[in-house]
Amino acid sequence: MALADLTDWIDGFSGPSFVWYVKRLSGNDTLANGSHQAGPYIPRSFLFDIFPSINRTDVKNPDLHLDVYIDSHADHRRVRVIYYNNKFHENPHGGRNEARITGFGGGSSALLDPESTGALTVFAFVLDENGAATECHVWVCRHETEEDLVEDRIGPVEPSKWTIWSPDRLVQPSLFSSQPKPRADCWLQPEEIPPAWLARFPSGVEIIRKAVELRADTALDPDHRLMRRRECEFQLFRSVEEAIELPIIKAGFTTVDDFISRAQTILQRRKSRSGRSLELHAREIFIEERLCEDVDFSHGPESEPGRRPDFLFPSQMAYRNVGYPSGNLRMLAVKTTCKDRWRQVLNEADRIRVKHLLTLQEGVSEGQFREMTDAGVKLVVPSPIVASFPKSVQPHLQSVESFIADVRLLPKPDTE
Hints:
By secondary structure, the chain is of the alpha+beta class. Strand 2 and strand 3 form a beta hairpin. It is 31% helix and 16% strand. It has helices spanning 3-12, 44-50, 144-154, 195-199, 204-214, 222-251, 256-288, 316-320, 366-374, 400-408, and strands at residues 18-24, 63-70, 75-84, 98-102, 120-127, 133-140, 162-165, 298-299, 311-313, 330-334, 355-358, 377-380.
């Protein structure tokens, strides 16, 4: 299908009779890591909303069948929607209490194909007049251009996050609440937000500085510290966004153009935050781990004219010193997802053969990993998400802590 077909698909499944569930497929969703999960994770609360007939405990494991059309790959499945409620029948202390959609057909389905790991995926549920789903149409994005087209409509969707989106509603409940609002965490109430932030949306650096303040976590290793802080920063960002934007949205708009302009401002701000967040967190971690900027690493340097890798080690000065051994140089690219975007790093830092890439994507297929390795890309993955990768791949991943330990030993140019 051409890209125009995805545009037509989006338009065709937008309206009062549709609700979208959007996520990036993890290694646990597909068959990439050898798990026996029956299909992509969808929250029980959402399934209960659109399949109210299974939300019952008076019968064991209520279910129904549903037609699912994976339109991106011309595939059709008759699946089973089931609520496993053994907890209320056999084992109140350890029984299952989860709802799932099963019967996607194993690896022959694009939803379970290991090569789909990391792909942005849209589930468009068709609703009847009572709000119950009658069928589902799915689009598994096949490349980053399709992902960009979807995210231009709904905003960025990051690994481990999901969003519920109803395209017909100008103001939709999920705009600020696609994830359960966290409490006793980093979510700021309006009175806790610095007044200057309400007057001018804070920069990424300012929000990350606040996340570091709330989650110093100095006793944690860099991998867990990075993951904890990034979750904190995400919550900070959304709480400030809600405090600023929700009153404006509730007040309403006098023209459609005014609404579209405001919506675009929100979406572009989210995309900007998503693109830079991980990079800024990594820089903060490097400094905390006693790496000195412009001595042990350079952030956003120019390696060749017009090319700027996220990080060079030990420094831009060392990279430009033709007498400094290329084997002692390192570069680190930072990309939240890497399914297709990893190829972008191949043209950065010509002097460095092996390109390190820090990502939060929850798994890749063995084929994807082999292609990356053959191209000279080595993945740096925070240790908490290593289990989402295939067991054969896990030993070849490098943790953030291990990467820092390696670059700390690189000789400085003046020691050569």
